[in-house]
Amino acid sequence: MAANTTVIEGEELERAGIEYVADALRFASGLMVARNGSFGAITSLFLRGGESDYVQVLVDGVRVNQPGGSFDFSSLTTDNVERIEIVRGPASALYGSDAVSGVIQIFTRRGEGRPRGSLSFQGGSFGTSRWQGDLSGGTGGLSYAFSLGGNTTDGILAFNNEYRQTTASGRVQGYLDADTDATLAMRYNDSRFHYPTDGTGAVVDRNAYSFGDALTVNIDAGRRWTDALETRLFVNIWEADSGTDDQPDSPADSLGFFGFKSLTDTRRVTAGGRVVWRTSAGTVLTAGYEEERQAVRGFNQSFSQFGESSGSSGNDWWNRAFHAQLSWVRDALALNAGLRAEDDERFGAAATWRTGAAWRSASSGTRLRVSAGTGIKEPTFLETFATGFTTGNPDLTPERSTSFEGGVDQEFGGGATLSLTGFRQSYRDLIQYTGSPPAQGDPNFFNVAKARSQGLEAEASVEASRLRLTGSYTYLDTQVQDAGFDEGPGATFVAGAALLRRPKHTIAATAFYRVSSRVGVDLGLRRVGEREDRDFSTFPADPVTLSAYTVLDLSASFDIAGGGGRPGLTLTVRAENLLDSAYEEVWGFAAPGRGLYVGGRVVLGG
């Protein structure tokens, strides 16, 4: 592939004690993570300066974004994760809606070999406790891997900041013969987050909480008919329930004059298949068809000194898509091209494309690459279907992007590599809300705004016998080109200004040193530059600048026992934000300070 891609191995995350996928992504170039304060708070990802709903997230091939693209990374853990793949740049030609700035794929572990089980525990700062159990193995034509884990924390605030979650996952893969295989992968997460803050970050409420659970199911089967021809069929299911509760009749409520609760159920079922044809000349042609059904059911109830009110809604819609991908490799040159045609019940027809080329010199270890493509993001449920005081617009079209990038990858020998990538992305038809529609009953949402982002991504790595170093640097320049309905310096979109919460400069580095055969040390360092934001405690919101900050994490692992068929025992110590830096990723919401965690892991079999 000609795009800039990164793979993060699950073994490295487990060794370093990184529990959340969002924390692993902080060290990759081109990515910016913003969490609204404590553990469990809403966590957003900005890739190459795009909006937080411009990244498609897949878990074992199942899209887990909300309709309209948003995804909260707060409860996505590294439990049972084999690897994380980051594909930068628009990828809607293959993946469809939401892949405007890129794609994040999470793959769970596959079992192999003799049965192997493990049990781990960890505890530490902020009243944190974590546990996880795994079981895996595989013989003959069947393999399996299962995981169950959970954690709780008191949070960083004085009261009502508890967070707890449970995650279960499993993968079973079987082979009927050498040419026929089938896989069933499932993942379930349940979480509850108590938040005392209002929308400005002020700590005021003693009983508000949010909750949610999500289930993903992937069924995939394929057969290779000849050396050239392969077919695959799949069914993906994603269902999520989420809501909030802040009822004023609770004795603990400090905002007794108003309360609110809500419940939303969202379901997506996708089925399809693809045909892969490979030739001896290095050409691979893939063609596929997908049909998707989405449904959203919602209920809300509000309480105030004036009485109670409630509302409910329900909508569903379908999408059909055909996609084709062509790749050609001959000696040092590789070319690829892709096209996807959508037929959506809401916005009608849409087409996206992507193409790229790469050339590699074996003698010098140099690889040159260029790529270009387009992406789309479907309107949200609210933007399309809302009724009442806010009215949706059924005539909305998708938000769109066009991207160009070029890069060079260089191998220096001795385990050293350097990668440089320059990119430019333009965003158009951005959907905005107007508080004053032209006439009563007219819609509040329109495709009116434009923006762009451009920058440079640099990544380097060095490997020696005991030492592995990685580093990344991102330069990002964003600009609003058409502010649409937003006006004034306090608007979230200001013509000529930068997009919010996107730093111009970001630096990250990791180091792993194997002290001995049984002792290893991991270090992670991040420097995030200044970002523009808004202070929503004022009206209109005041423009503010989030200060630059530096975060240092340090962990060590000690293999106490194991080998020769004996049970293994590993002890771990991890310090997060070792320098106790005080910073905010969202204005008004303080990030956690220094934390120290100690744990152990027992492994049997394998």
Looking at this protein, list some descriptive labels:
mainly beta; 22-stranded antiparallel barrel; 606 residues
Describe the 3D structure.
- With 606 residues, the chain is mainly β.
- It has one domain: Beta Barrel (Maltoporin, Chain A), CATH 2.40.170.
- The protein contains four helices and 33 strands.
- The strands form five sheets. It has a 22-stranded antiparallel beta barrel. It has a five-stranded mixed beta sheet with strand order 1-6-7-4-5.
- The longest helix has 7 residues.
Give a short summary of the structure.
The chain is mainly β and 606 residues long. It is built from four helices and 33 strands.
DSSP E strands, number: 33
How far from one another are the termini?
35 Å
Query: Are there runs of 5+ residues with pLDDT below 50, and where?
Result: none
Mean pLDDT value:
93
Shape: globular
Describe the main β-sheet briefly.
Answer: 22 strands, antiparallel, barrel
For the record, the count of structural domains works out to 1
Q: Using the CA coordinates, give the radius of gyration.
A: 25 Å
CATH topology: Maltoporin, Chain A
Level-1 CATH class name: Mainly Beta
CATH superfamily: TonB-dependent receptor, beta-barrel domain
Number of helices: 4
Specify the CATH architecture: Beta Barrel
